[in-house]
Amino acid sequence: MFTGIVEELGEVTAVETLDDACRFRLRGPVVTQGAKHGDSIAVNGVCLTVVDHEGDEFTADVMAETLNRSSLGALAVGSRVNLERPTAVGDRLGGHIVQGHVDGTCEILGRTPSEHWEIVKISLPAELSRYVVEKGSVTVDGISLTVVDAGRDHFTVSLIPTTLALTTLGIKKPGDPVNLEVDVIAKYVERMLGDRVAGEGVTR
User: Which of 140, 158, 178, 200 sits between 20 and 30 A of 69, alpha carbons compared?
Assistant: First the structure.
């Protein structure tokens, strides 16, 4: 489990294209401290498994399903990425519960800078819009954010200078893809309520 509090801005140093997958080598001096084979590291919000680790770099294999459902397929050598290690038991939950299981990709629609923060407008797939609510939590490229405004086909987030400086959202431009993970609690509540309604329908 992750919290969406990005630990560092890493970099893709190599990409190996396989038949139905990709192997990425990524540099991250912070997240590689004590890393070992089989550990999990979130890359732009996608939970990946460490295959190999040497110095401040690690490699991770990404299967076709993940490439198709996330923006990782667009990464190239030199791409900057958000990196986060899993939350240790007993640590503070600084953001919200993040699984690292991307629900879909969105697109940066626009940016509105102001003196102390920046509003970013992001597209919202129709099948995910019911999970995104005003003042609710959402994960964009692995960053835990609070929704400012939620429309049918878009939502906005407000970014403080720290987020702009230390994550990929500081350099993303309109048209760039981002990974979206909605609040998992909302999905469980929907499922449980749906089963309850269905059950009540049967008894009637």
Answer: 158
**Cα 131 → chain centroid:** 15
Burial of 5 per CB tally in 10 Å (0-12, 13-18, 19+): middle
Give the pLDDT confidence of 4-18 residue by residue, as tens digits. 999 999 999 999 998
CB count in 10 Å sphere of residue 67: 17
This prediction's pTM: 0.89
**Helix (H/G/I), strand (E/B), else coil: 94:** coil
The DSSP line for 72-83 is GGG--TT-EEEE
CA distance 37 to 51: 5
Q: What is the pLDDT of residues 10-52, one digit of tens each?
A: 999 999 998 889 999 999 999 999 899 999 999 999 999 999 9
CA distance 40 to 49: 5
